[in-house]
Design a protein that fits this description.
Blueprint: E1 2-10, E2 13-19, H1 29-36, E3 46-51, E4 58-64, H2 74-86, E5 93-98, E6 101-107, E7 112-115, E8 122-124, E9 129-132, E10 136-141, H3 150-158, E11 170-178, E12 181-188, E13 193-195, H4 199-213, E14 219-223, E15 226-236, E16 239-247, E17 250-258
Parallel strand pairs: 2-3, 4-5, 10-11, 12-14
Antiparallel strand pairs: 1-2, 1-17, 3-4, 5-6, 6-7, 7-16, 8-9, 9-10, 11-12, 12-13, 14-15, 15-16
Active site: 73, 198
Protein name: Diaminopimelate epimerase
Subcellular location: Cytoplasm
Protein backbone atom coordinates (compact mmCIF):
# COMPACT_ATOMS: atom_id res chain seq x y z
CA UNK A 1 0.00 0.00 0.00
CA UNK A 2 1.51 3.31 -1.14
CA UNK A 3 0.66 6.32 1.03
CA UNK A 4 1.24 9.97 0.06
CA UNK A 5 2.43 12.02 3.03
CA UNK A 6 3.55 15.53 3.91
CA UNK A 7 6.10 16.54 6.55
CA UNK A 8 5.46 19.71 8.59
CA UNK A 9 7.23 21.31 11.52
CA UNK A 10 6.22 23.92 14.08
CA UNK A 11 9.23 25.34 15.96
CA UNK A 12 11.01 22.03 15.43
CA UNK A 13 8.13 19.82 16.59
CA UNK A 14 7.72 17.72 13.43
CA UNK A 15 4.84 15.63 12.13
CA UNK A 16 3.80 13.33 9.31
CA UNK A 17 0.54 14.71 7.84
CA UNK A 18 -1.77 12.46 5.81
CA UNK A 19 -4.84 13.61 3.89
CA UNK A 20 -7.30 10.90 4.95
CA UNK A 21 -10.55 12.53 3.83
CA UNK A 22 -11.29 9.34 1.91
CA UNK A 23 -10.91 7.38 5.18
CA UNK A 24 -8.59 4.80 3.60
CA UNK A 25 -5.64 4.96 6.00
CA UNK A 26 -5.32 1.81 8.10
CA UNK A 27 -2.17 1.03 10.04
CA UNK A 28 -1.24 -0.79 13.21
CA UNK A 29 0.38 0.84 16.22
CA UNK A 30 3.67 -0.78 15.21
CA UNK A 31 3.44 0.53 11.63
CA UNK A 32 2.75 4.10 12.78
CA UNK A 33 5.66 3.90 15.22
CA UNK A 34 7.92 2.70 12.40
CA UNK A 35 6.84 5.58 10.14
CA UNK A 36 7.77 8.00 12.94
CA UNK A 37 11.11 6.28 13.62
CA UNK A 38 14.07 8.50 12.75
CA UNK A 39 16.22 5.62 11.48
CA UNK A 40 13.77 3.19 9.91
CA UNK A 41 10.95 5.50 8.83
CA UNK A 42 10.17 9.04 7.77
CA UNK A 43 11.01 10.42 11.20
CA UNK A 44 8.63 12.56 13.26
CA UNK A 45 7.36 13.39 16.75
CA UNK A 46 3.92 12.16 15.68
CA UNK A 47 1.57 11.28 12.82
CA UNK A 48 -1.62 13.21 12.08
CA UNK A 49 -4.60 12.28 9.93
CA UNK A 50 -6.77 15.01 8.43
CA UNK A 51 -10.29 13.66 8.04
CA UNK A 52 -13.73 14.96 7.14
CA UNK A 53 -16.00 15.96 10.02
CA UNK A 54 -19.62 17.16 9.59
CA UNK A 55 -20.07 20.74 10.77
CA UNK A 56 -16.34 21.49 10.71
CA UNK A 57 -13.70 22.10 8.08
CA UNK A 58 -11.86 18.92 9.16
CA UNK A 59 -11.01 16.58 12.01
CA UNK A 60 -7.50 16.12 13.40
CA UNK A 61 -6.53 12.62 14.59
CA UNK A 62 -3.16 12.56 16.34
CA UNK A 63 -0.84 9.62 17.04
CA UNK A 64 2.25 9.85 19.22
CA UNK A 65 5.61 8.64 17.92
CA UNK A 66 5.04 5.38 19.81
CA UNK A 67 2.12 4.68 17.46
CA UNK A 68 -0.67 5.16 19.99
CA UNK A 69 -3.43 7.73 19.60
CA UNK A 70 -2.57 10.68 21.80
CA UNK A 71 -4.14 13.61 23.58
CA UNK A 72 -4.20 17.10 22.09
CA UNK A 73 -0.98 18.34 20.48
CA UNK A 74 -0.72 22.14 20.14
CA UNK A 75 2.08 22.34 17.58
CA UNK A 76 0.51 19.40 15.76
CA UNK A 77 -2.74 21.35 15.68
CA UNK A 78 -0.99 24.37 14.21
CA UNK A 79 0.69 22.18 11.57
CA UNK A 80 -2.65 20.55 10.72
CA UNK A 81 -4.22 23.99 10.28
CA UNK A 82 -1.41 24.97 7.90
CA UNK A 83 -1.85 21.66 6.05
CA UNK A 84 -5.60 22.27 5.69
CA UNK A 85 -4.86 25.79 4.46
CA UNK A 86 -2.40 24.43 1.90
CA UNK A 87 -5.08 21.96 0.74
CA UNK A 88 -7.47 24.89 0.18
CA UNK A 89 -9.98 23.86 2.86
CA UNK A 90 -10.28 27.43 4.16
CA UNK A 91 -9.00 30.91 3.40
CA UNK A 92 -8.04 32.60 6.65
CA UNK A 93 -10.20 31.26 9.51
CA UNK A 94 -11.13 27.66 10.29
CA UNK A 95 -12.89 25.49 12.84
CA UNK A 96 -11.98 21.85 13.37
CA UNK A 97 -12.47 18.99 15.78
CA UNK A 98 -9.71 17.30 17.79
CA UNK A 99 -9.66 14.71 20.55
CA UNK A 100 -10.25 17.38 23.22
CA UNK A 101 -13.11 19.08 21.37
CA UNK A 102 -13.60 21.92 18.87
CA UNK A 103 -10.91 24.47 18.01
CA UNK A 104 -10.73 27.63 15.95
CA UNK A 105 -7.64 29.00 14.22
CA UNK A 106 -6.46 31.65 11.81
CA UNK A 107 -3.71 31.42 9.22
CA UNK A 108 -1.65 34.31 7.92
CA UNK A 109 1.41 34.30 5.69
CA UNK A 110 3.84 33.12 8.37
CA UNK A 111 1.84 32.47 11.56
CA UNK A 112 -0.85 30.12 12.80
CA UNK A 113 -2.95 31.29 15.75
CA UNK A 114 -4.66 28.30 17.36
CA UNK A 115 -7.34 28.58 20.02
CA UNK A 116 -6.69 26.02 22.73
CA UNK A 117 -9.34 24.54 24.98
CA UNK A 118 -10.26 26.23 28.27
CA UNK A 119 -8.30 25.33 31.40
CA UNK A 120 -10.43 24.86 34.51
CA UNK A 121 -7.76 24.41 37.14
CA UNK A 122 -4.08 24.71 37.98
CA UNK A 123 -2.56 22.78 40.88
CA UNK A 124 0.26 24.57 42.69
CA UNK A 125 2.53 22.23 44.65
CA UNK A 126 5.66 23.04 46.64
CA UNK A 127 8.11 22.42 43.77
CA UNK A 128 5.95 22.32 40.65
CA UNK A 129 2.61 23.16 39.03
CA UNK A 130 0.30 20.70 37.30
CA UNK A 131 -2.44 21.44 34.77
CA UNK A 132 -4.12 20.04 31.68
CA UNK A 133 -4.03 22.14 28.50
CA UNK A 134 -5.42 19.36 26.30
CA UNK A 135 -2.58 17.17 27.57
CA UNK A 136 -1.32 16.85 31.16
CA UNK A 137 1.70 18.98 32.08
CA UNK A 138 4.09 19.18 35.01
CA UNK A 139 5.82 22.59 35.20
CA UNK A 140 8.99 23.15 37.26
CA UNK A 141 11.03 26.35 37.46
CA UNK A 142 14.82 26.11 37.19
CA UNK A 143 17.68 28.62 37.22
CA UNK A 144 19.17 27.45 33.91
CA UNK A 145 17.31 25.13 31.50
CA UNK A 146 20.52 24.57 29.52
CA UNK A 147 22.00 22.77 32.53
CA UNK A 148 18.87 20.75 33.33
CA UNK A 149 18.84 16.97 32.77
CA UNK A 150 15.56 17.09 30.89
CA UNK A 151 15.35 13.43 29.84
CA UNK A 152 16.50 11.86 33.11
CA UNK A 153 14.33 14.03 35.36
CA UNK A 154 11.43 14.09 32.92
CA UNK A 155 11.36 10.31 32.60
CA UNK A 156 11.47 9.91 36.39
CA UNK A 157 8.45 12.21 36.79
CA UNK A 158 6.56 10.74 33.81
CA UNK A 159 6.87 7.18 35.18
CA UNK A 160 6.97 8.09 38.88
CA UNK A 161 4.63 7.09 41.67
CA UNK A 162 2.43 10.20 41.38
CA UNK A 163 1.68 10.43 37.63
CA UNK A 164 2.89 7.09 36.26
CA UNK A 165 -0.18 5.15 37.42
CA UNK A 166 -2.42 7.82 35.83
CA UNK A 167 -0.92 7.38 32.36
CA UNK A 168 2.06 9.66 32.88
CA UNK A 169 2.56 13.34 32.18
CA UNK A 170 4.62 15.66 30.03
CA UNK A 171 7.33 17.46 31.99
CA UNK A 172 8.39 21.08 31.40
CA UNK A 173 11.39 22.97 32.76
CA UNK A 174 11.05 26.75 32.79
CA UNK A 175 13.61 29.53 33.09
CA UNK A 176 12.33 33.09 33.57
CA UNK A 177 14.30 35.41 31.27
CA UNK A 178 12.47 38.64 32.11
CA UNK A 179 8.88 39.86 32.37
CA UNK A 180 6.55 37.99 29.99
CA UNK A 181 9.52 36.06 28.60
CA UNK A 182 10.32 32.39 29.32
CA UNK A 183 12.69 29.73 28.09
CA UNK A 184 11.26 26.19 28.12
CA UNK A 185 12.45 22.63 27.51
CA UNK A 186 10.02 19.71 27.50
CA UNK A 187 10.08 15.94 27.93
CA UNK A 188 7.11 14.52 26.01
CA UNK A 189 5.33 11.29 26.85
CA UNK A 190 4.63 9.19 23.76
CA UNK A 191 7.87 10.45 22.23
CA UNK A 192 9.68 9.50 25.47
CA UNK A 193 12.38 12.07 24.87
CA UNK A 194 12.93 15.81 24.78
CA UNK A 195 11.30 17.47 21.78
CA UNK A 196 12.35 20.73 20.17
CA UNK A 197 9.04 22.30 21.21
CA UNK A 198 5.68 21.35 22.75
CA UNK A 199 2.62 23.50 22.09
CA UNK A 200 0.45 22.32 24.97
CA UNK A 201 3.58 22.49 27.14
CA UNK A 202 4.43 26.12 26.44
CA UNK A 203 0.74 26.94 26.92
CA UNK A 204 0.90 25.32 30.36
CA UNK A 205 4.07 27.26 31.19
CA UNK A 206 2.48 30.58 30.20
CA UNK A 207 -0.56 29.94 32.40
CA UNK A 208 1.68 28.83 35.25
CA UNK A 209 3.65 32.08 34.92
CA UNK A 210 0.40 34.02 35.13
CA UNK A 211 -0.42 32.25 38.41
CA UNK A 212 3.06 32.91 39.82
CA UNK A 213 3.85 36.40 38.55
CA UNK A 214 0.52 37.93 37.46
CA UNK A 215 1.67 38.50 33.89
CA UNK A 216 -1.03 39.73 31.52
CA UNK A 217 0.50 38.36 28.33
CA UNK A 218 1.20 37.77 25.61
CA UNK A 219 3.91 35.54 27.05
CA UNK A 220 6.90 35.05 24.75
CA UNK A 221 8.41 31.57 25.00
CA UNK A 222 11.76 30.42 23.65
CA UNK A 223 12.00 26.71 22.86
CA UNK A 224 14.85 24.69 21.38
CA UNK A 225 13.15 24.94 17.96
CA UNK A 226 12.03 28.58 17.98
CA UNK A 227 9.75 31.18 19.52
CA UNK A 228 6.06 30.91 20.37
CA UNK A 229 3.54 33.27 21.95
CA UNK A 230 0.61 32.50 24.26
CA UNK A 231 -2.29 34.83 24.99
CA UNK A 232 -5.12 34.12 27.42
CA UNK A 233 -7.91 35.51 29.59
CA UNK A 234 -8.14 34.53 33.26
CA UNK A 235 -11.83 34.23 34.14
CA UNK A 236 -11.30 33.21 37.80
CA UNK A 237 -8.24 32.32 39.88
CA UNK A 238 -6.34 29.61 37.94
CA UNK A 239 -9.10 29.27 35.33
CA UNK A 240 -8.52 30.41 31.74
CA UNK A 241 -10.37 30.87 28.45
CA UNK A 242 -9.58 32.44 25.06
CA UNK A 243 -6.15 30.79 25.10
CA UNK A 244 -4.21 31.15 21.86
CA UNK A 245 -0.98 29.44 20.83
CA UNK A 246 0.73 31.51 18.13
CA UNK A 247 3.72 30.65 15.97
CA UNK A 248 4.98 29.40 12.60
CA UNK A 249 4.10 26.08 10.95
CA UNK A 250 5.91 25.10 7.77
CA UNK A 251 5.85 22.34 5.16
CA UNK A 252 9.24 20.63 4.99
CA UNK A 253 8.77 18.08 2.19
CA UNK A 254 6.33 15.57 0.73
CA UNK A 255 6.60 12.06 -0.66
CA UNK A 256 5.16 8.56 -0.69
CA UNK A 257 5.91 5.59 1.53
CA UNK A 258 5.12 1.88 1.32
CA UNK A 259 3.15 0.55 4.28
Amino acid sequence: MTIPFYKYQGTGNDFILIDDRAATFAATTEQIARLCHRRFGIGADGLILLRNEPGYDFRMVYFNADGREGSMCGNGGRCTVQFAHDLGLFTSRTSFLAVDGPHEATASYDLISLQMGPVHGLEQHDTYDFLNTGSPHYVAYVDDVAQTEVVAIGRAVRYGDVYGPLGGTNVNFVQVLNENHLKVRTYERGVEDETYSCGTGVTACALSARAHFGWEGPVLIETVGGTLQVTFRETAPRQFEDIYLIGPALRVFEGTVEL
